[in-house]
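Re: that chain you flagged

S.,

Sorry for the slow reply, it's been a week of failed gels. I finally had a moment to sit down with the sequence you sent. For the record, here it is as I used it:
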Amino acid sequence: MALNDILNKLGGQNGEQGGLAAISKLFDGDGMQGILGKLQASGLDKQVMSWIGHGKNEPVSGDDIKNAVDPRQLAQVAQQSGMSQDEVADHVAQALPEAVDKATPGGAVPQQGFSMDSLMGMFKK
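Prediction finished late last night. Pasting the structure tokens below so you have them in one place:
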């Protein structure tokens, strides 16, 4: 499934923008650096580094995502999107590697950090 399809599913009526907002919400609205930090803290450092760096993106599973996010937020996003928590986590697991890869074209997280809005801009290119 293409990244924009996944984001549209997660975002429901709010489309891709809503999908990115939903992902951000799962990670307490911390923006990309907060998301990556939470993923790394939950043991996904190798995968996160593969998305940022050059080369193949290592996959993560829905269970990996569930371990990294706030369960209450996951329940809310699932309810809003009309999907099960497993489906939401699976979609996020599919979307994040590509999203992070696109957002870090230089092979590093931009120093000033970046918001989900700047990430949306990258998808429009």
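What I noticed first: The mean pLDDT is 86.

Talk soon,
D.
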